[in-house]
Specification:
Four Helix Bundle (Hemerythrin (Met), subunit A); signal; Cytochrome b561 domain-containing protein; membrane; 10 strands; 2 domains; single chain; four-stranded antiparallel beta sheet; 15% strand
């Protein structure tokens, strides 16, 4: 315990003896026992001198043409080693450098007061960019792992649900399918906006010179988002249900959706495995990311078998009885997965 207190005391002493030099500060250390810091805040100057040997009594701040501002350090703070003085920029000639003189043999290099003004912050801070990156990840998670799989399940298994009911003039399954996918597209587009804001509108895909997996992730994400946006647009041009060419639209719509989801899932897997700064639990996140597609495939295969003539002739119940519970159970699981992954993303960047 005594050792811990000793280490803590040494750390505190070292912090006091060697203040960090901020962008708006000038630091001068003629020897190990003396530390001088001049900090500018607006038009105010704060001169802080740490003198371990308490040998410094007067400090001169010099400019060319004979300008000399005297700082009296005979009255130090309670520790007897620290002297502070408040000055203003108006006390000095503009555009002329200053030097801090502690003694005849200890004079700092010239420093311009204009150099102590930190450059204006351009764009977002690192913390703000990270928040937008997290928003990008979370929106993509909800778009691709909740809304899109939910829309798919209602299109594949939900047609037998609410058969006798309509919603705004159309079948309930179709309206839910359309609404879920529309919400997914909104999440994706908003997510893309967030990541472009985070990168300050800098392209990170092929040809950008970024890291390999960053380029691949970006390319796959952009292509999948474009295909996802194209889905509701091409639906506006579909022919009627009884039209002879309707089967072409149906298969084109399915294929575009499958390709988009495959590319998006690959992009998310790359993020979960390669972007360890924001995705801190790669194995857990990989499993969670793959669960929605695994559930969709399992339910599709299961109900394809249950709806086959071979099963129907032997079964004592219809498969439609199981569709409702299966669909709503799966959507509940999708929601839990999206929330769990989002919480993991929120806790990202902890060790950076």
């Amino acid at each position: 315990m005594l050792l811990l207190y000793s280490i803590l005391f040494m750390c505190i002493s070292s912090l006091r003896a060697a203040p960090t030099c901020e962008p708006n500060s000038f630091c001068y250390s003629p020897n190990e026992s003396t530390k001088v810091t001049l900090t500018r805040t607006g038009d105010s100057l704060n001169l802080r001198i740490y003198d371990e040997n308490s040998a410094i009594r007067k400090v001169h701040i010099l400019q060319k043409e004979g300008k000399d501002v005297l700082v009296d350090c005979t009255n130090k703070k309670e520790d007897g080693k620290t002297c502070e003085a408040q000055l203003t920029v108006d006390q000095f000639e503009k555009n002329l450098p200053i030097s801090i003189k502690l003694s005849d043999s200890q004079t700092s290099d010239p420093i311009s007061l204009e150099a102590l003004v930190p450059p204006a912050q351009e764009g977002l801070t690192k913390q703000q960019r990270r928040q937008f990156s997290k928003a990008h990840a979370i929106l993509m998670i909800f778009g691709w792992l909740l809304f899109v799989p939910s829309g798919f399940l209602f299109a594949r298994l939900g047609k037998d649900l609410f058969k006798e009911q309509t919603l705004f003039g159309s079948a309930v399954w179709f309206q839910i399918h359309r609404a879920a996918n529309f919400m997914g597209v909104v999440c994706m587009c908003t997510s893309m906006l967030c990541i472009f804001i985070s990168t300050q509108w800098t392209w990170k895909g092929t040809g950008s010179g970024s890291k390999y997996w960053t380029e691949v992730h970006t390319d796959l994400g952009v292509i999948s988002t474009v295909l996802a946006v194209a889905q509701p647009i091409n639906s506006l041009f579909r022919c009627g249900p009884t039209h002879s060419q309707r089967i072409i639209f149906n298969w084109a719509h399915r294929c575009v959706g499958i390709v988009a989801y495959t590319l998006a899932l690959t992009a998310i897997i790359i993020a979960a495995v390669q972007f360890k700064r924001i995705w801190n639990e790669p194995l857990m996140e990989l499993v969670l990311v793959c669960l929605p597609i695994a559930i969709c495939l399992a339910l599709t295969i299961a109900f394809t078998f249950l709806e086959s003539d071979r099963f129907r002739t032997k079964a004592s119940f219809g498969p439609h009885i199981l569709k409702g519970p299966a669909v709503f159970w799966a959507i509940g699981v999708f929601f839990c997965i999206a929330v769990a992954l989002s919480l993991l993303v929120v806790n990202g960047y902890k060790n950076v």
